[in-house]
Amino acid sequence: MRVLRTPRRLCRLGVLLLAATALYAAAAAPAVADDPGWTAEPAAGTAARHGGVHPYFARPYYYMAGTAGTVLEDRLALANTTDRERTVTLRGADAYNTADGAFAVRPARESRGAGAWISFGAGATVTIPPRTRAVVPFTVTVPPASPPGDHPAAVVATEGGHEVGVRVHLRVSGPTLAALTVEDVAVRGRGPAAVVTYTLVNRGNVALAPELALDAEGLFGEVPGRGSRALPVELLPGQRVELTEPWPGAPVADRVRVTLTVTAPGGARAVGAGARWLVPRDLAGWTGLGLLGLGGTAAAALFLARGRRPRQDPPGDASEDRQPAPTPAPEHELTGASR
């Protein structure tokens, strides 16, 4: 019997379809990071402009310079953008490069460099009323025995599990050295999917903005490389990073030698090289099977050749050297006759 759907049943079906569509849309929508409800940035400063003084300018980070033993001062601006009170904790931290070159800060207990020179004094914990902006002063005390060069650090603000860091570029006066090395150069993949992996090490005492050029040579001459380009990393003093450079011009089958030349402002220059056979996967497989089969055939032929070799007499037993055996004397019957 044919069943006719009533308007009520159709309405329920429509509601179910709408609910399913809403759930699918919610699941497919990208996650949005939680807004901490507050910001931290360098307080606006002053700068000379056209012979006068421009009272306010934005600073993305702090830049400080001085001799060993000096005390430097600056300010941090905190802004509460919510309708409730916020309590923010402030500290200094050492900065470093992660393995892939990103900028990161160390925990408070591990900061023994420039991060430990930063002090907020009694203002290490700040309570900010709703819709209010607070400016907090801090000092950087450079120890008398500090070596010259860059000492990367950061000012870190923490509240409710959220952490915001503001970079501090601190340079201690004195001789500077821009130096680096290129190590562990290797080629991975082949053809357009090939990449070159390598390690950069900052051997000097200043931060570096490196540029990389890639040259390559095959069995029959030069192959396409990559022109010089700026790397998306700031290499901090004493840091080591492992980077990957795409090489879309790599050949599919060849023996290549790759040379990386890295330069940076200040006279830093380093060269590293690596070599590898590039063989297509299918060709490598068939070549391996062919070599294996050829080796097996050669072994079988050698075994058969040894089995068919005529037997040789031992030395000193040749037929021409043999003496004829003596003919035995005929036996006589005992008849009593004399011989």
Q: Can you describe what's shown?
A:
With 339 residues, the protein is mainly beta. Among the domains are: 53-172, Immunoglobulin-like (Sandwich); 180-281, Immunoglobulin-like. It is 14% helix and 41% strand. The protein has helices spanning 7-28, 281-307, and strands spanning 38-42, 47-49, 52-54, 62-66, 71-80, 86-97, 103-105, 118-119, 125-128, 133-141, 149-150, 153-159, 162-172, 180-188, 195-202, 211-218, 221-230, 240-246, 254-264, 268-278. The strands form five sheets. Strands 4, 6, 7, 9, 11, 12 and 13 form a seven-stranded mixed β-sheet that branches. Strands 1-5-10-8 form a four-stranded antiparallel β-sheet, with no helix packed on it. The longest helix is centred in the C-terminal third of the chain and has 27 residues, at 281-307.
**Distance N to C terminus:** 141 Å
Task: Note the beta-strand portion.
Answer: 35-45%
Integer-rounded radius of gyration: 41 Å
Number of helices: 2
Structural class: mainly beta
Please estimate the helix content. 10-25%
What is the level 1 CATH name of one domain?
A: Mainly Beta
- Helix and strand run: HEEEEEEEEEEEEEEEEEEEEH
Low-confidence stretches: 1-6, 15-33, 47-53, 331-339
Largest sheet: 7 strands, mixed
By CATH, the topology of one domain is: Immunoglobulin-like
Which geometry do the CA atoms define? elongated
- CATH architecture of one domain, by name, is Sandwich
The total beta strand count reads: 20
